[in-house]
Design a protein that fits this description.
The chain has a single domain, classed as Rossmann fold (3-Layer(aba) Sandwich), CATH 3.40.50. It has a six-stranded parallel β-sheet with strand order 3-2-1-4-5-6. It is α/β, with parallel strands linked by helices.
């Protein structure tokens, strides 16, 4: 049964963000165009283009451990990360349970090239709307802060693909909002998000499109 989870929320400490400055101190539209190339600038360039340096620091271990417990993963289970980026979460899965079969897909060749060597053989460059995997193949399909970067018609295709390749569980994390303040903060801060929905709208989409997996929301409070 679909339910709200809180695997990743504990990682996000409440920090001060200059939302207005994000828009006024740089050409945000130009920065977004650079970010949407998903290259070095987005991952490891200036903060105005994206992460400002996305490096392994071990923080994802607690998330992998929680998911292993929640979804009762055992040696031999298969996990797919849609939008895996540098695949740090998949690396933690393999470190905690080496017998897991992991796979990752991302649109960014740069991110995959800079993934941990231990998981590079399991990664493929591609689009979430066309997952190159068989039907009912994975015990767990996850997607973290990725699918909101798709426009609505591609978003629906991506959820259909997740349902197709999973015969077990799924988990999806996205940016969202519950009120006008969080909505405006999201609009000011984001660079790559194409699908802006409140938490209530996301839940409606889950029901309408038949997404049966779990979900988690991140809010810009």
């Amino acid at each position: 049964m679909r339910q709200e989870r809180h695997f990743i929320k504990p990682l996000y400490k409440k920090t001060e963000r200059d939302y207005v400055g994000r828009v006024t101190e740089a050409d945000k539209a130009a920065c977004a165009e650079v970010a949407l190339q998903w290259g070095r600038d987005y991952w490891d360039g200036d903060r105005k283009y994206g992460y400002g340096g996305y490096r392994y620091d071990g923080r994802w271990e607690v998330v992998a451990r929680a998911m292993i417990e929640a979804y009762r993963l055992k040696p031999g289970c298969r996990i797919l990360d849609v939008g895996c980026g540098k695949a740090f979460l998949l690396y933690e899965f393999k470190k905690l349970m080496p017998e897991l079969e992991v796979a990752g897909l991302d649109i960014s060749g740069y991110a995959l090239e800079h993934a941990k060597d231990e998981v590079k053989p399991y990664l493929v460059e591609g689009n979430a709307t066309r997952l190159p995997f068989p039907d009912n193949h994975f015990d767990l399909v996850i997607s973290v802060m990725t699918l909101h970067n798709l426009e609505l018609f591609d978003l629906q295709r991506a959820f259909a693909e997740i349902e197709r390749v999973s015969f077990g569980d799924a988990y999806f994390l996205t940016e969202s909002y519950r009120n006008e303040r969080e909505k405006m903060n999201l609009l000011y801060w984001q660079l790559t998000c194409q699908s802006f929905f409140s938490d209530r709208e996301w839940k409606w989409l889950f029901e309408t499109w038949g997404y049966s997996g779990d979900y988690e929301f991140f809010y810009f409070e």
